[in-house]
């Protein structure tokens, strides 16, 4: 591509609204432009990188046996009403009406739409397990869209869903996707950790988030350098030792995110009441009251799910029920059944209000997902104290460290929540009707692009690794007015195109300084500089991530590049 004709609007200054490197650089280097808050246009360079990342994801999904589909973004409200999420998803879900006053939502995620396909089209165990995926824009009316592509209101996601005949089969599909995710993030060259996330999945099964380590990450993870242990500290359940934490409220404030301020009020109720064995609890969140009813044991396909729970919001002014929360664990990927802890993670109505869990385990403390100010280590000397950096990691190897991370992926054992609510059943090999068991697996594709820029940049611009770079080679002709420079650059450009090498050719009538600065900003891995020695067919070659340049004759250029 000739840069003189390409839409690459580079800027000298950082845009005022951008606070972090990836946002600044993607705007300055001409990859993206904002259309509205949290809504971005991918310009040609941005689109090329996005496609590269998609390709890696697609290859690994296909290799893992997942099948690509494309669902519609626009979804009828009825689907979301069947699952219950119409009432629980809150204002992050973009809702609208058509000309006949029928209600719709723009897909924030696609569990419902995918489940509706499976329940209609797959009725036998013979087709199971089946994993389906798509790469498509998602819509979430985020409360605080920010950091450019990192938290948008419309963003590109790869979302996959597995449909299984049993929990054992789900375990395998989950592991399969987990492994594919590791390969994807490794191939992209990212420094990441797979962390234990919300432990509230059905049947006590796990969910993991893939976190790119970065100072600008909104999550905090606890990990051990010398073992595989890593957990998202946000998702760690509050223990029923809550009374003990009450003394150090100050510390809790420090670690909780703004959205979690009301945690204390909730935990005040839950912590005490559940210990006393009460089955229903009302707690106050802002000016609303939430009633939580635990239903005790519950069976899905012969697997015991404990303390499945209903909750509803009661507006005390009118005494009317306004919202019904179904199930527990209202992550944005949806409700999942609760294990033996009773969890409340409400994400409903106007604001995401609380993100709280509460429970007891047999040992009397919780030390799985470590959260300072919230989780405890058994102190042999005294009774309990909060987890701190430097404590032994829960697996006994190494010590706990804290770091910030960007959530680029999330794998989730959903269990039968959607399949049950939406009637997705199949006939097993003895002809018995059973409910499907599901998993869901998301990757933020556009967020991953931004996360890569966070990890791959220097003070001059982006430094793309080959596998994601918009082009492999950047030709700079320093003075195209000089005939021999223009001709040589044109010829090299043609040679590269013949070889099928992706090349951007800066043929603009700009000063050399401008070209160098733009080239650094854009970050293409290999640069060919056509300058003074063009008459002798000699050019300079420089890697974006190295300082040194080497002179090379045109005749041996192709060997150098390959
Ligand atoms: P977050 O905690 O950052 O709000 P999430 O847990 O709500 O993310 P999921 O429902 O797990 O997100 O969606 C799967 C993936 O989609 C996430 O792991 C993330 O990479 C990406 N994603 C989610 N929300 C956004 C967003 N607003 N902008 C860009 N990517 C997003
Ligand atoms: Mg979210
Ligand atoms: Mg999250
Ligand atoms: Mg998530």
TrEMBL record:
It holds the Pfam family HGTP_anticodon. One of its GO terms (biological process) is prolyl-tRNA aminoacylation. GO terms for molecular function: aminoacyl-tRNA deacylase activity; ATP binding; catalytic activity, acting on a protein; proline-tRNA ligase activity; transferase activity. PANTHER family: MITOCHONDRIAL RIBOSOME PROTEIN L39/PROLYL-TRNA LIGASE FAMILY MEMBER, PROLINE--TRNA LIGASE. InterPro entries: aa-tRNA-synt_IIb (IPR002314), aa-tRNA-synth_II (IPR006195), aa-tRNA-synth_II/BPL/LPL (IPR045864), Anticodon-bd (IPR004154), Anticodon-bd_dom_sf (IPR036621), Pro-tRNA-ligase_IIa (IPR002316), Pro-tRNA-synth_IIa_bac-type (IPR004500), Pro-tRNA-Synthase_IIa_type1 (IPR023717). It comes from Salimicrobium jeotgali. GO terms for cellular component: cytosol. Its main location: cytoplasm. PROSITE patterns: AA_TRNA_LIGASE_II. Keywords: Aminoacyl-tRNA synthetase, ATP-binding, Cytoplasm, Ligase, Nucleotide-binding, Protein biosynthesis. Consists of three domains: the N-terminal catalytic domain, the editing domain and the C-terminal anticodon-binding domain. It catalyses: tRNA(Pro) + L-proline + ATP = L-prolyl-tRNA(Pro) + AMP + diphosphate. Residues 33-465 form the Aminoacyl-transfer RNA synthetases class-II family profile domain. Catalyzes the attachment of proline to tRNA(Pro) in a two-step reaction: proline is first activated by ATP to form Pro-AMP and then transferred to the acceptor end of tRNA(Pro). As ProRS can inadvertently accommodate and process non-cognate amino acids such as alanine and cysteine, to avoid such errors it has two additional distinct editing activities against alanine. One activity is designated as 'pretransfer' editing and involves the tRNA(Pro)-independent hydrolysis of activated Ala-AMP. This is Proline--tRNA ligase. Its EC number is 6.1.1.15. It comes from the Bacteria. Belongs to the class-II aminoacyl-tRNA synthetase family. ProS type 1 subfamily. It is found in: Cytoplasm. Homodimer. Gene3D superfamilies: Anticodon-binding domain (3.40.50.800), Bira Bifunctional Protein, Domain 2 (3.30.930.10).
């Amino acid at each position: 591509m000739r840069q003189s004709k390409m839409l690459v609007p580079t800027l000298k200054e950082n845009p005022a609204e951008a606070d972090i490197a990836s946002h600044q650089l993607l705007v300055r280097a001409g990859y993206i432009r904002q259309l509205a808050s949290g809504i971005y246009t991918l310009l040609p360079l941005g689109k090329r990188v996005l496609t590269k990342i998609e390709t890696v994801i697609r290859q690994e999904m296909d290799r893992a046996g997942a099948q690509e589909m494309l669902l519609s973004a626009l979804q009828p409200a009825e689907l979301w009403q069947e699952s219950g999420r119409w009432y629980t998803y809150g204002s992050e879900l973009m809702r609208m009406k058509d000309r006949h006053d029928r209600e719709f939502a723009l897909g924030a995620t696609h569990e419902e739409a995918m489940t509706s396909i499976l329940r209609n089209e797959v009725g036998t165990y013979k087709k199971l397990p089946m994993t389906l995926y798509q790469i498509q824009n998602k819509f979430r009316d985020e409360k605080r869209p920010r950091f450019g592509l990192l938290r948008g209101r419309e963003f590109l996601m790869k979302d996959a869903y597995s449909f299984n005949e049993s929990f054992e089969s789900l375990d395998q599909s989950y592991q399969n996707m987990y492994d594919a995710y590791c390969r994807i993030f490794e191939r992209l060259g990212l420094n990441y950790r797979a962390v234990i996330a919300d432990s509230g999945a059905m049947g006590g099964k796990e969910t993991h988030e893939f976190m790119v380590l970065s100072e600008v990450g909104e999550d905090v993870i606890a990990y051990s350098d010398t073992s595989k242990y890593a957990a998202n500290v946000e998702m760690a359940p509050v223990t029923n030792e809550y009374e003990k934490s009450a003394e150090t409220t100050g510390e809790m404030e420090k670690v909780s995110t703004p959205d979690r301020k009301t945690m204390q009020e909730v935990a005040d109720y839950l912590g005490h009441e559940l210990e006393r064995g009460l089955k229903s609890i009302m707690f106050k969140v802002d000016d609303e009251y939430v009633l939580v009813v635990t239903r005790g044991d519950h069976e899905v396909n012969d697997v015991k799910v404990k303390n499945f729970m209903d909750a509803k919001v009661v507006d005390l002014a009118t005494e009317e029920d306004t919202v019904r929360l179904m199930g527990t664990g209202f992550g944005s990927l949806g409700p999942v059944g609760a294990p033996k802890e009773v969890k409340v993670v409400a994400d409903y109505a106007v604001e995401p209000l609380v993100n709280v869990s509460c429970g007891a385990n047999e040992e009397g403390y919780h030390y799985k997902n470590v959260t300072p100010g919230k989780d405890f280590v058994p102190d042999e000397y005294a009774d309990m104290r909060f987890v701190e950096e430097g404590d032994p990691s829960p697996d006994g190897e190494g010590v706990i460290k804290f770091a910030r991370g960007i959530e680029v992926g999330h794998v989730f054992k959903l269990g039968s929540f959607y399949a049950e609510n939406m009637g997705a059943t199949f006939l097993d090999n003895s002809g018995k009707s059973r409910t499907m068991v599901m998993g869901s697996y998301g990757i933020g594709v556009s967020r991953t692009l931004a996360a890569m820029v966070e990890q791959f940049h220097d003070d001059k611009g982006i430094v793309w690794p080959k596998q994601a770079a918009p082009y492999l080679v950047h030709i700079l002709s320093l003075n195209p007015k000089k005939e021999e420079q223009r001709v040589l650059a044109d010829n090299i450009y043609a040679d590269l195109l013949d070889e099928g090498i992706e090349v951007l050719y800066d043929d603009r009538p700009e000063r050399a300084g401008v070209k160098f600065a733009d080239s650094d900003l854009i970050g293409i891995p290999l640069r060919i500089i056509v300058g003074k020695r063009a008459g002798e067919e000699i050019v300079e070659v420089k890697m974006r991530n190295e300082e040194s340049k080497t002179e090379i004759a045109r005749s041996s250029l192709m060997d150098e590049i390959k």
